[in-house]
């Protein structure tokens, strides 16, 4: 009878990979998963209470290094009208608005309007392919560590902000924009400048 109960004395785990103290690998994975979900929900709730800069408010600072290595900052561009467009190569509406944005850049550059493309969560090769595909000549650069997106409380690509010569937001467009919409906004800003 003692031989039959000897297995009770051997309390070493049979598998060296098992986690001691009764926590199984599955339980540990479940706990980590629950913690991750709670963190994601907490971040989303926090961001939900943040608002995007609205027309009339000072535009948040930004620093964008273009794919060509040129640095653009809000303060260094003061005195120009800035169109800040958040986009990604994986975003269908971004493809749809690409030619209109290029046309706006070409038509309004002489009026002191600078279009800056902020590439969001993309692979550089894909982003550069997008730029080549549409013949985009205005400056574009990656949003390293999502700094600009966070400053502008960016929600989803595409989003476009127009910043006036005084550094204040004049317009915010969530979703795809077209030539007519941007031209109307720019013409209004330029008309005010003439007064």
Please provide a written account of the structure.
By secondary structure, the protein is an alpha/beta fold. The protein folds into 2 domains: 1-49, no CATH class; 63-194, Glutaredoxin (3-Layer(aba) Sandwich). The chain contains 6 helices and 7 strands. The strands form 2 sheets. The protein has a 5-stranded mixed beta sheet with strand order 5-4-3-6-7, covered by helices on one side. Strands 1-2 form a two-stranded antiparallel ribbon. Helix 3 (92-108) links the parallel strand 3 (81-87) and strand 4 (113-119). The chain is elongated.
- Written as H for each helix and E for each strand, in order along the chain, the element string is HHEEEHEHEHEEH
- Give the spatial strand order of the biggest sheet: 5-4-3-6-7
What can be said about the biggest beta sheet?
5 strands, mixed
User: How many DSSP H or I helices?
Assistant: 6
